[in-house]
Design goal:
The complex is a heterodimer of chains A (about 260) and B (about 280). With about 260 residues, chain A is α/β, with parallel strands linked by helices. Chain A has seven helices and ten strands. Chain A has a six-stranded mixed sheet with strand order 6-7-8-3-9-10, with helices on both faces. Chain A has a four-stranded antiparallel sheet with strand order 2-1-4-5, with helices on one face. The chains are: A alpha/beta (about 260), B mainly alpha (about 280). The structure holds adenosine-5'-triphosphate and magnesium ion (MG). Magnesium ion binds next to α1 of chain A.
Chain lengths: ~260, ~280
């Protein structure tokens, strides 16, 4: 549960401005859905929140303190792909975070302490519905199961912020609905602050308590490198009625039709 | 409907037959050639008959050599394998350490990686005289030749494989609170060991090449030494069985390493099947 404050953040790659003048205040326990056309810098924004990249200008504060210069256990992440370790079973993947915490020297527990940690992981594994697959390797799981595993793995260290980059992009609609229920339950139970990038507006509205859209104001070809994308829509979803949601969806859908 | 040839697969028996066929043909061609030459000149040494090959095998593999008092083939095999295994183990261990730090730590990579790349360009055989001068004509120089011959390749391969790892995994490990050391131990090493062993399998050919070259030049026992020794007497009846034996040993190494990989790293196989 964290307050995130992004002030006047710019990001450029090799002189090309990708993001500019990004300002955002996010209350604790918010679920921020992020939408926008492909290539506008959504993933870049998440990478900055993760400290995988540094802003070129501006600052990001979490609970008033600047972000550490590298990824830390306060900020969990689920990528679209490659989020889990292929050489570890489901159980070992989930236990990884606890093992490295409790065994600083070799990052691995043995005997009774190992059993204890494995038992502690049982609950979250059951919560994401992978009980029957505990001893399987990720390559033996379906795409949806792998993403559920990634979520369980990311939550085991109880991060205060969870970053999701199109986590359900590759899943079929049925599994997606299951994942949404799971996500909402976990969100309520853990009090996390979530940032989720998605290309699916419905998903963004369904899950988010707030929706932001990135886009460029200037899109003439000669201006592309010189001007970046920024937040063009910022919509609280908490109290929106279904009708308000529908109208907002139509409006934003129109605006980000580029994707 | 007749299927396309790319979709037709041989069954088990057919595969076995097709796999053996080239060998059968080779043996047949050899037998014919040998018979024809021996008919012209019974003392011909180039293509000895199977009978004289058998005699030679019995002599070197199953009876003690009157001059040295040992069974030649076994003494040679023991000496060669000792050198080869020692060289492979040292090269692998060295490459594991250097390859991993090069792949994982940018500061070490900046310092060591160019050096490894350049050293790997030195033709190892050109260094052999230097090794003989520095390490003497004994075991050490042969083992060092194998190490110098294959370690740079193993190091570079390992470094490249580590850099190929999806960046997401390293980020993920950091978000789970793992330190650099823990990431090396629990994420990088376990995924790289099977790849290193695969690279060692590819290095088996060069390793044998370096071993036999070194033995040919300076040794008093060893498979390579023996082949080059009996060459003076045109003893094809000894050389050919030795070559077959060396090939068999190399094949056994290769299969053993492959089995080892599949056994110790089951997730690799699981991944390959689903990919
Ligand atoms: N490491 C990098 N070096 C140079 N340019 C980069 C780098 N990473 C991203 N970019 C550029 O930044 C822009 C934004 O990329 P980003 O991945 O953030 O887009 P995105 O909004 O996540 O797109 P998508 O919806 O397709 O995932 C792109 O134009 C991309 O070319
Ligand atoms: Mg993206």
């Amino acid at each position: 549960m964290s307050h995130v404050s992004v002030s006047n953040v710019w990001k450029e790659y090799d002189g090309q401005i990708v993001l500019e003048r990004v300002n955002l205040e996010v209350k604790p326990h918010a679920f921020v859905s992020i939408v926008g056309p492909s290539g506008c810098g959504k993933s870049t924004f998440l990478r900055m929140l993760l400290s995988q990249e540094m802003p070129s200008r501006g600052s990001i504060l979490v609970d008033g303190a600047p972000l550490p210069p590298e990824p830390t256990e306060e900020r969990g992440v689920v990528f679209q792909r490659y989020s889990v370790f292929p050489h570890l079973t489901v159980l070992e993947n989930v236990a990884f975070g606890l093992e490295v915490q409790r065994s600083r020297l070799v990052g691995r527990l043995f005997g009774a302490r190992r059993r204890e940690v494995f038992e502690a992981c049982g609950e979250i594994i059951a919560a994401v519905g992978l009980d029957a697959a505990r001893d399987k390797y990720p390559s033996q799981l379906s795409g949806g199961m792998q993403q559920r595993l990634a979520i369980a793995q990311a939550l085991i260290r109880r991060p205060r912020i969870l970053l999701l980059d199109e986590p359900f992009g590759a899943l079929d609609p049925g599994i997606r609905a299951d994942m949404h229920d799971l996500m909402l339950t976990l969100f309520e139970e853990t009090g996390l602050t979530v940032f989720m990038v998605t290309h699916d507006l419905k998903e963004a509205f369904h899950l988010g308590t707030r929706l932001i859209a990135f886009d460029r104001y200037r899109r003439r070809p000669e201006e592309i490198g010189a001007y970046g994308a920024t937040i063009t829509f910022d919509l609280p979803l908490d109290r929106s009625s279904p009708r308000e949601k529908r109208e907002a969806m139509a409006e934003i859908g129109h605006a980000v039709a580029g994707n | 409907m007749a299927r396309r040839w790319i979709n037709r697969h041989p069954g088990r028996a057919e595969r076995l037959f097709l796999g053996l066929l080239p060998f059968l043909i080779l043996i047949l061609v050899y037998a014919t050639g040998s018979a024809m030459r021996l008919e012209v000149n019974p003392n011909d040494k180039l293509l000895p008959s199977f009978a004289s090959l058998g005699n030679a095998i019995a002599r070197v593999a199953f009876s003690t050599d009157p001059r040295t008092g040992v069974v030649l083939l076994w003494a040679d095999t023991a000496a060669s394998l000792e050198r080869l295994v020692l060289g492979l183990v040292i090269a692998t261990a060295l490459s594991l350490v250097i390859g991993v730090v090069n792949g994982v730590l940018p500061y070490v990579r900046a310092g060591l990686s160019p050096m490894v790349a350049i050293v790997s360009m030195i033709p190892p055989m050109a260094l052999l005289p230097v090794l003989f001068i520095v390490f003497g004509l004994d075991e050490l120089s042969k083992v060092v030749l194998i190490v110098i011959g294959i370690a740079p390749f193993l190091m570079r391969d390992l470094e490249a494989r580590i850099l190929e790892m999806p960046g997401e995994q390293l980020i993920k490990a950091q978000t789970l609170g793992a330190s650099s050391w823990q990431i090396v131990l629990r994420v990088v090493l376990p995924q790289m060991l099977p790849r290193l062993i695969d690279a060692v399998r590819l290095s088996l050919g060069p390793a044998w090449l370096f071993l036999i070259s070194a033995e040919a030049i300076a040794a008093d026992v060893g498979l390579g030494y023996r082949i080059f020794l009996v060459r003076r007497y045109l003893a094809m009846d000894v050389i050919l069985p030795y070559v077959v034996w060396i090939t068999l040993l190399a094949l056994i190494f290769d299969i053993a390493l492959k089995r080892f990989n599949a056994w110790v790293f089951p997730w690799m196989e699981a991944g390959r099947r689903s990919a």
